């Protein structure tokens, strides 16, 4: 179930006098943000949601900051056109490289995933491992956030460039994926970590694989869970909690709607209807 035509209309026709009925915008490079969406369904079941997956330009983890910043600006501008009341940047790479900049540029609450994840990690352990995309690992965003909260912990990061493409290709149960995961976890296990942070919203989808390779005593931190807790607090603070029945979630991608629908069905429990909107990639020409 998908639509290959660009959707120009506004499905959410709510009154400006009732801003609480406006949807929450969620965006990621692909299906990884569905881990955040699932937490929204669990923790904030009354909220309507617009989900955008920038599948035409994934993976974000190998992109430059200039590219990530351009993508975030384009998506946020589009989100504003959909009249969302808040945006969750359900992408660690965007949160690491663009969040603070775009917060100054857009007059809308924008939440990232790194700070909530860092806070949760510090509460869990003292020897913390972070698996992340190359761009997020290189930014040291998690390490800096964790150490800013507690200087007494130790943090190790591993760049995992192959994880997102494998997940997007629905190869989670592939033996190759297990071997890749084993190689990424090895240096962290050598440091005897007690906590592992999913430094990419795609990675909770690998939980069965990672758990099979980790000692049972290692705690797993999913920033998606804690990001939605922060979202609930922000909605309450702003008086924007929706008390009406939610509207159906809108799924929009920049790439192939069929592939997203096929990948998303196992995480959503149904085949989503997927719309397409395109952005022109120009930053690489700079």
From TrEMBL:
Annotated EC: 5.1.1.3
Residue positions of the active site: 91 (proton donor/acceptor), 200 (proton donor/acceptor)
Keywords: Cell shape, Cell wall biogenesis/degradation, Isomerase, Peptidoglycan synthesis
Pfam families attached to this UniProt entry: Asp_Glu_race
UniProt xrefs under PROSITE patterns: ASP_GLU_RACEMASE_1, ASP_GLU_RACEMASE_2
The reaction(s) this protein catalyses: L-glutamate = D-glutamate
Alphabetical GO biological process terms: cell wall organization; peptidoglycan biosynthetic process; regulation of cell shape
InterPro entries reported for this sequence: Asp/Glu/hydantoin_racemase, Asp/Glu_race, Asp/Glu_racemase_AS_1, Asp/Glu_racemase_AS_2, Glu_race
Pathway: Cell wall biogenesis; peptidoglycan biosynthesis
Molecular-function GO term, any one: glutamate racemase activity
Similarity remark: Belongs to the aspartate/glutamate racemases family.
Protein name as catalogued: Glutamate racemase
Annotated organism of origin: Dendronalium phyllosphericum CENA369
């Amino acid at each position: 179930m998908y639509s290959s035509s660009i959707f120009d209309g506004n499905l959410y026709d709510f009154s400006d006098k009732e801003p609480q009925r406006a949807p929450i915008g969620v965006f990621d490079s692909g299906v990884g943000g569905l881990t955040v969406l699932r937490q929204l369904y669990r923790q904030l079941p009354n909220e309507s949601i617009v989900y955008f997956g920038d599948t035409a330009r994934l993976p974000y983890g190998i992109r430059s900051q200039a590219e990530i910043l351009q993508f975030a600006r384009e998506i946020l501008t589009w989100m504003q056109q959909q009249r969302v009341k808040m945006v969750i940047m359900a992408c660690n790479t965007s949160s690491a490289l663009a969040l603070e900049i775009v917060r100054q540029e857009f007059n809308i609450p924008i939440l990232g995933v790194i700070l909530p994840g860092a806070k949760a990690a510090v509460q869990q352990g003292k020897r913390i491992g972070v698996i992340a995309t190359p761009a997020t690992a290189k930014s040291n965003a998690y390490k800096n956030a964790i150490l800013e909260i507690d200087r007494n912990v130790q943090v190790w990061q591993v760049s995992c460039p192959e994880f997102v493409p494998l997940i997007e290709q629905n190869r989670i149960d592939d033996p190759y994926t297990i071997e890749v995961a084993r190689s990424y976890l090895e240096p962290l296990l050598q440091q005897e970590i007690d906590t592992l942070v999913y430094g990419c919203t795609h990675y909770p989808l690998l939980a069965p694989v990672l758990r099979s390779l980790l000692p049972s005593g290692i705690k797993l931190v999913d920033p998606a869970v804690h990001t939605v807790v922060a979202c609930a607090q922000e909605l309450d603070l702003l008086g924007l909690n929706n008390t009406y029945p939610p509207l159906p979630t809108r799924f929009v991608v920049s790439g192939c709607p069929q592939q997203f629908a096929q990948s998303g069905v196992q995480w959503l429990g149904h085949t989503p209807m997927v719309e397409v909107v395109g952005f022109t990639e120009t930053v690489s020409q700079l």
